[in-house]
Amino acid sequence: MRKAPRRGVLRTVREDLAAARRGDPAARGDLENAIVYSGLHAIWAYRITHRLWIAEGLPGARTVARILAQVTRTLTGIEIHPGARIGRRFFIDHGIGVVIGETAVVGDDVLVFHGVTLGGRGGGPGPGSRRHPTVGDRVVLGAGSALIGGITVGDDAVIGAGTVVTKDVPAHSVVTGVAGTARPRSGREGVPEL
């Protein structure tokens, strides 16, 4: 994922609302979605905590970021570490139980369902330590899937519900099962129109 240019808050909110409409056929309208979708609340809170996390020269900013992230987790049931890097138009549908670890990197236009874990597997703390997954653009992560360790999921991949992924996933593939195995994609499985 490349570093995104700075965007205005209003533009980002509009993009997130559009991602909710695209990712959830039951989405009824922007106002209602903004009020009731915990996935939107979690990503908006993450965007604030991430800014604090990367702020240089602001004493105590990381502590405040972690506290706000925990408050958000309590309110939404979604835990996103402020150190994670998440791209544009990210949407969590039925978000309860989603966990995204500190060194996770998530691309643009990613759709995540409830119970997804982007978790770590060992590795030491500190800069350069890649303990969590890197997820490409336009990826769909099915309900209850677990991506563990410093793996890479290629662009346009679909991870099936309940799948456990511990190895790299090629772009344009579908992964299913425990100790998931990849196969070529036959179409746009699980990917909403952009």
UniProtKB/TrEMBL annotation:
Cited Pfam families: Hexapep_2
Uppermost EC category: transferase
Pathway(s) per entry: Amino-acid biosynthesis; L-cysteine biosynthesis; L-cysteine from L-serine: step 1/2
Catalysed reaction, written as an equation: L-serine + acetyl-CoA = O-acetyl-L-serine + CoA
The keyword rRNA processing is annotated on this UniProt entry: no
E.C. number: 2.3.1.30
Keywords, in A-Z order: Acyltransferase, Amino-acid biosynthesis, Cysteine biosynthesis, Repeat, Transferase
Any coiled-coil regions, as ranges: none
PROSITE patterns in alphabetical order: HEXAPEP_TRANSFERASES (PS00101)
Entry similarity comment: Belongs to the transferase hexapeptide repeat family.
Protein name as it appears in the record: Serine acetyltransferase
GN (gene name): cysE
